[in-house]
Amino acid sequence: AEYEASQARRYDLEVWFDEAVLNGWYNAKKSYGVRRRAYKYSTPAILAVLGCGALFRYPLRGAEHFTNSLLRLVGRADLRAPDHSTLCRARKRLRIPLAPALPSGPLVLLIDGTGVKVYGAGEWLRAKHDVTERSRWRRLTLCVDYATGQVVSHTLMPSEGVGTGETSQVAPLLEAAASGGVAVAEVIADRLFDARHVYETVGNHGGLPVIIPQQDAA
Which of 33, 47, 123, 177 is paired with 102 by a 20 to 30 Å CA distance? Predict the structure, then answer.
């Protein structure tokens, strides 16, 4: 029954706007642009429309008309969403908060890496004329908070070369996490990270390494 209820909520459209956003829909502070012209809409209004568009994967014109329909549903037909041209200009100057704050206290961190293929100039030529060329890859290593799934730190290195392996990225990852005020409780990793210097690095940061040992581990 709980699973069926969760599935039903996936298709239930509930519209809710913060009253502070609706009451401050238009720019009452009279903030100005580069041409000393006052913006018509407030920053929360711009973020609300862009958020609706990103949630339903609408283009800017679709986000404009969709938000207008939502405003009518909540009984605020007196408000109008910014037009798509205004949204296009506004999103270039806005700083949109993406990541929530991490929980306080020592965190349990997951470390793992993957390969990322690099695309760039010449891709069309290789696909059109079947030109064989060695693929270009980068090694992306992530340090993730176990409780929230939020990326705490990351490194992007070449796929080959000295100091580019995944085990060598543990120290930079934990140092970047520490610089952001993150305290380490445990570090979980697979058997690829079963190396002495990895254990020492985690211990130096005050954490407990939880690593699967390799098959030939002593």
Answer: 47
HSE (side-chain half, CA atoms, 13 Å) at 106: 10
> For residue range 145-191, what is the model confidence (pLDDT) as tens digits?
998 888 999 999 887 777 778 889 999 999 999 988 899 999 999 99
Taking CA atoms, 30 is separated from 25, 40, 42, 89, in Å, by: 12, 8, 9, 17
Q: How far apart are CA 70 and CA 15, in angstroms?
A: 7
Instruction: For residues 38 and 82, give the distance between their C-alpha atoms in angstroms, rounded to a whole number.
Output: 14
Strand, coil or helix: 54: helix
pLDDT score of 34 more than 70: no
Who contacts 145 (Cβ-Cβ below 8 Å, separation ≥6)? Answer: 102, 103, 107, 108, 109, 110, 151, 152
Ranges 71-75, 133-137, 148-152: which has the least confidence: 133-137
Confidence of residue 9 (pLDDT cuts 50, 70, 90): confident
* Contact (CB, 8 A) for 107 and 150: no
User: Is the separation of the CB atoms in 118 and 158 below 8 Å?
Assistant: no
Residue 63 has what pLDDT?
Answer: 93
Question: What torsion, rounded to 10 degrees, do the Cα atoms 209, 210, 214, 218 define?
Answer: 60
Q: Which of 131, 123, 153 is nearest to 140 (CA)?
A: 153
